[in-house]
Design brief:
Number of strands of chain A: 10
Oligomer: homodimer
Subunit structure (chain A): Homohexamer; dimer of trimers.
Shape of chain A: globular
Catalytic activity (chain A): a (3S)-3-hydroxyacyl-CoA = a (2E)-enoyl-CoA + H2O; 3-hydroxyisovaleryl-CoA = 3-methylbut-2-enoyl-CoA + H2O; 2-methylpropenoyl-CoA + H2O = (S)-3-hydroxyisobutanoyl-CoA; 3-hydroxybutanoyl-CoA = (2E)-butenoyl-CoA + H2O
InterPro entries (chain A): ClpP/crotonase-like_dom_sf, Enoyl-CoA_hyd/isom_CS, Enoyl-CoA_hydra/iso, Enoyl-CoA_hydra_C
Strand content of chain A: 5-15%
Main location (chain A): mitochondrion
Organism (chain A): Macaca fascicularis (Crab-eating macaque)
CATH class of the largest domain in chain A: Alpha Beta
């Protein structure tokens, strides 16, 4: 049998039982993911809603969950009907961190050679805007996931924290970078060095989240915001998102140059002409994403 | 006649009717789109009021040209120490002039460096305080953010609604707003076009003070007077240093700051200021 096995060509793909089943399931409305729920929402199904769904583990971000998340994101990115995405968790927890059991026995060599956490970056490469609707705990990797999104709406009972220090490590998915840029040095240092939590109200005041809603209505409000964004031209929205993100990647002068080039580029689109003409003619614009 | 015209030297200047009249009027005379005058106890404050009320101060080419002319004149006026830029009670500036932009092509924009003349405000050495009553939308919001300080009236509203017109901010809106209010709120504003109130803007760090509508401009002038009572050359260095925080890393910015700080010791005003402090008297700065 061993000899026969050697004769078989080494196949990758469906003939070999997949290590993680969810990666092989076709995405379709209603198809079963194991760790997430993904569906379209909004009046014209222009919003992709992804709900992290690992409630017994408070949505701890295991490898399988991130893979499914990436798959759903990719599908929504390629869906010409979807204009914006909402990412949420449960009422009690958005995501209470990475999966510590998965990390517990890793060595430095494992991390470095296997680019540990690299697949988390997919979310940051999305052209379409992603709104994080955070109810409950956004801890560690959960907080980092929310901060990778473009907009954060928080439920009244949301709590944010980077408690990695209590586990003898540090944030590894942008926590020290995005948190500091959002809330300033003093609060970021305090959170990262003590592991203390901040409330939704603290987070809004500090600039981490832009709106707070009651727990029951948070996701609906986020979907409404996503619908508003999705009603604009997708190509222009992508340029606007790119421009805002550039503020964290270059100096003000260089960022302003990039913004100007993107701004000039909008004049090469039909949607810019349609948008301004509609404004002058006092009518609603009819964008075509071209 | 045509032959004679050829013999005349090609003259630029008043002999050719100017394309835009306002560019040729001497300062102090009538601008078409703005009002410019000196204010404050010793006329140390230059006040520029955008004055195109029927268009809610929509920022047409002519207005920006006049604004630049007034800024330049105040910059060169050795009596003026700081400038206040304001609009009407109802609108600071409700945006760029869409009719001027409607039919532009990408080629027009790129070849003619569309919006480049807006940058003059960012090159001023003297501080500019934006006193924003009412709407600061699109280009109006960007203009306010180019200023060094923003004071808002209680009814002020800020927005970057370019997305609703199928375009994006083109005069620094995505850059300055994000640095001021953080990613979540900036993304929300830029991608939805939604407005924020003066109170939101203060909480988010975009404006530093809020005043009643009626007293806003006076308060801004008082702040400008306070600034103007300091040494102009040192004020220029302080402004340059703060702006450097957005142009380089902390380490490099601190190096620049230190060099500017050392440079203050080459000035008379630094010596006068510290001596006055030690002698418990008022400093008498000479801008040297």
């Amino acid at each position: 049998m061993a000899a026969l096995r050697v004769l078989l060509p080494r196949l990758r793909g469906p003939l070999r039982p997949p290590v993680r089943c969810p990666a092989w399931r076709p995405f379709a409305s209603g198809a079963n993911f194991e760790y997430i729920i993904a569906e379209k929402r909004g009046k014209n199904n222009t919003v992709g809603l992804i709900q992290l769904n690992r409630p017994k583990a408070l949505n701890a971000l295991c490898d399988g969950l991130i893979e499914e998340l990436n798959q759903a994101l990719k599908t929504f990115e390629e869906d010409t009907g979807v204009g914006a995405i909402v990412l949420t968790g449960g009422d009690k927890a958005f995501a209470a961190g990475a999966d510590i059991k998965e990390m517990q026995n890793l060595s430095f060599q494992d991390c470095y050679s296997n680019k540990f956490l690299k697949h988390w970056d997919y979310l940051t490469q999305m052209k379409k805007p992603v709104i994080a609707a955070v109810n409950g705990y956004a801890f560690g990797g959960g907080c980092e996931l929310a901060m990778m999104c473009d907009i954060i709406y928080a439920g009244e009972k949301a709590q944010f924290t980077q408690p990695e220090i209590l586990l003898g490590t540090i944030p590894g998915a942008g926590g020290t970078q995005r948190l500091t840029r959002a809330v300033g040095k003093s609060l970021a240092m305090e959170m990262v060095l003590t592991g203390d939590r901040i409330s939704a109200q603290d987070a809004k005041q500090a600039g981490l989240v832009s709106k707070i809603f009651p727990v029951e209505t948070l996701v609906e409000e986020a979907i409404q915001c996503a619908e508003k964004i999705a009603s604009n031209s997708k190509i222009i929205v992508a340029m606007a998102k790119e421009s805002v993100n550039a503020a964290f990647e270059m100096t003000l002068t260089e960022g302003s140059k990039l913004e100007k080039k993107l701004f000039y580029s909008t004049f090469a689109t039909d949607d810019r002409k349609e948008g301004m003409t509609a404004f002058v003619e006092k009518r609603k614009a009819n964008f075509k994403d071209q």
